[in-house]
Model the fold of this input.
Amino acid sequence: MGLIRLLFILISFAGLPALAHEFWIEPEQYQVETDKPLVASLRNGENFKGTSLGWFENRFTRFEIVLGDKIAPVDGRMGDTPALQTTAPSDEGLLVVLHETVPSRLTYREWEKFLKFAAHKDFRTAADFHAEMGWPQEGFRESYTRHAKALIAVGDGAGSDRAFGLRTEFVALTNPYEPGFDGVMRVQVNDDGTPRADAQVEVFERTPDGVVDVTLHRTDAKGQVGIPVNPGSEYLFDAVILRPNHDAGSEDKAPLWLTFWAALTFAVPAR
Done:
């Protein structure tokens, strides 16, 4: 391995944040023609701005592109950035990019940071549960995984999303690229295949001039929510599960909390 490539890889790892923030798939273009370059970054950051992460096979359990019934793995070389560099299929339709990471761990050295995270992601009973368990307020660990999807129109972009069995995932119930799209993006949030009722969905909208607006929404009893979206804007939907690790006592220094992050990115064509 060349010195420059090795240095690049080390920098990529060094750029990973110390605490978990949003993770998403960001295509260079959300609408591409058949047989043309298809490029997308894996990003980690806040407020819809983040570092582009490289292609590292040992950091994901699933990285695929799907068009209709055809599923293909995303191939790459260690350190490739952007992580997805391929050619769009010859067939038109709605293409879905899937990515699931291996578990990562972080250590909370300050209780206030955990409280802030739990409040931000709407887990109101987490602090009380933590105290009832007698868990320490400093130096405890969390394990987290990412479960991201992106919707890209190839040609006409016709078609529909579906559940792909991600540990947690957004399922788009409407297609923003179809001509009849009514301006309301309807999604379902799943937890291990089961709809998540009354779940918080954080929505990041990036307008064509780069301004990011953040709003909060909640799913209904069926785990679904309809969110108004605007032509020309790009969107990141984020939903997090925070769950105590009931096996924490069986492993030395085991994480006390488990988090599963679902993300969905797409754009609404300018009309």
The helical segments are 3-14, 111-120, 126-132. The two ends are 48 Å apart (CA to CA).
